[in-house]
Each structure stands twice: as structure tokens, then as C-alpha cells.
Design a protein that fits this description.
The chain is mainly α. It has a single domain (6-70, 79-110), classed as Winged helix-like DNA-binding domain superfamily/Winged helix DNA-binding domain (Arc Repressor Mutant, subunit A). Helix content is 51%, strand content 8%. The chain is built from 4 helices and 3 strands. Strands 1-3-2 form a 3-stranded antiparallel β-sheet.
Length: 118
């Protein structure tokens, strides 16, 4: 069955941020935390417990997958780390959310609610 990406919209900001981070590269949890904070300019700070609850939900929804094989080994890396990657469905959901948000921004811009001119 092919799920409709719109069925999960709107996404919570941290879910979209995690999908964005994983669309760039497969990562383990701590690397997701670091990249998310950097990408959001510190506006979204994920805590480990909240991150792993969110990752669990995203796995259940088919947005991400846990990797069977690890990316290239890094010297001294903890073998217990679990790596995650975005699924094709996760990419479609993220794209649908980005488009939904772009339409909302355009609507706000059209009535002068943003810094841009209508």
C-alpha cells in the first residue's frame, strides 16, 4: 500500500529537522543531535530522550529506517551506535511538508505579514 504523505502533515518542527538532517547523510543519534542544532542555528535543541522517542515514532511511521550496515568505520567509534537513514516515504513526506510551508509563507507574504513586499 502506498501511503499518502499528506496523512502525516503538518509535521512537528523537530521531525522535519531530523528528516532534513538524515536526507543529507545517514547518521547515528548523537550526530543527529549535533547536526540538528547546527542546522537550526540553535533554535531547536533536541534532548537525547526526546530524540530517541521521536526516532521511534519515525521508524514506526516508515519515515526513517535503521541501517543494517554501518557507514564506513570511524576509528574509535562505539560499535553500539545505531545509524539511521531517511526512507523514500520519509523524503516524500518532508517534500510535502516543505511545499505546505512554502504555500503558507506565500500566503503570509501576499498580505504583508513578512518582511518581503506583496
Amino acid at each position: 500500500m502506498d501511503r499518502d504523505p499528506d496523512s502525516l502533515l503538518p509535521l512537528k518542527p523537530d521531525v522535519l529537522l531530523i528528516l532534513t538532517v538524515l536526507a543529507e547523510a545517514e547518521r547515528h543519534g548523537y550526530a543527529i543531535l549535533q547536526a540538528a542544532e547546527e542546522r537550526s542555528g540553535g533554535a531547536i535543541r533536541l534532548r537525547p530522550g526526546a530524540l530517541y522517542r521521536r526516532l521511534g515514532w519515525m521508524l514506526d511511521q516508515g519515515l526513517i529506517r535503521e541501517l543494517d550496515e554501518r557507514p564506513a568505520e570511524v576509528e574509535g567509534e562505539d560499535r553500539r551506535r545505531r545509524y539511521y537513514g531517511v526512507t523514500a516515504f520519509g523524503t516524500r513526506v518532508a517534500r510535502a511538508e516543505a511545499e505546505r510551508m512554502a504555500r503558507a509563507v506565500e500566503a503570509a507574504r501576499a498580505v504583508g505579514l513578512t518582511g518581503g513586499t506583496p
